[in-house]
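INFO batch 0412 | record 1 of 1 | parsing
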Amino acid sequence: MVNYKDERYHDDLLIQLTKDLDELNRLDILSNVFYLGKLGKLKHSRAKRRKDFDVELTFSNLSMIIETKVDSDEGGRRSRDEWQTDEIVKKVSNSKKYSNPEYFFITYGTSEFYTKPYEPGAASDLFSSIGLDKMIDLVGSALNLPLKEKDKYQEWFDLMLIEQKKRLNAIPMLKSFSNFRNHYLTYQGDIDFPNNRLLFCAPELAFPAYGLIASEWNKSKHAKMYGKVELCPIARRSPHIHDSLLRFLEMRESGKPELGKSLYHKGFYLEINEDFNLNLKFNSEGPKEINNKVHNQLKNVKWPQFVNARPRNYKQKANVCYEFDFGLLNTLDDIPFTVDKLGATVTSIVKALS
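INFO prediction complete | emitting tokens
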């Protein structure tokens, strides 16, 4: 069975398609999509998956160095000393077998919406991003040719079209889901289910919207006050609940502004989770009594009219002590307004806890 989220599935088909195009003398289709000049002939022994990156496609005139992403992000600073792009370029540069390397990131899923708050690595500018739409163009053009095993390429093409249609219809579908969610939560009299969460595992719908919010936030006045946000791709698997999607990572790591200063505790941070709400959390090593202090500090705060805030006392990888429904799903037709609502909510939290 085909597994769309498996990056190797896409790699193997791209390698085979390139070989087929070479045999038909139609490498111009590949060259046009990847914005390359004349490739020359493909060296079939050098069209393969690699350990240091995902795919090598070496031709007479250049080598294509490809990193493939579906629902994962670029490895980097938090786990190693440098970004994945820097590591790849360093390894390729130290090898004598790659002539005129051209670097590419191909994104087929939620990876296309990955947003990081940091400056990119030094090698980042060497990489060109090839998104889902371009890969659809490539395979769609190739399907007009007498390809071997055409059925496999047609299936690949159809799966990418499904992904594209989900993106194009993500906001109206989320608005429909919002109506259901509001009715569902009304029966509970709450804004979420801390002990039995309403699982919405459709990141290919949520991430186009989150990507717009993250991009708008990071260029807004709010980012200057509270730091840039990070949007991390997540795997589409069930029934796993994803604890973190859109993170106020720069605020958390810089400590500016410092949440919890008035409570003499430095472990607080903010995240938007899979429930579309903003959550105030603190590190697991924090004292247990901190929750009561937060609840007392926030119980008399006058929140913006559109915010429904609730105290929490549970652990999901981290301690969640307060949750804020600021109506994210209700204003997706106006992303700048949604970002302003988020900014006003964060401002109220910062004022109460600084």
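INFO post-check: DSSP finds eleven helices and eleven strands in the chain.
INFO record closed
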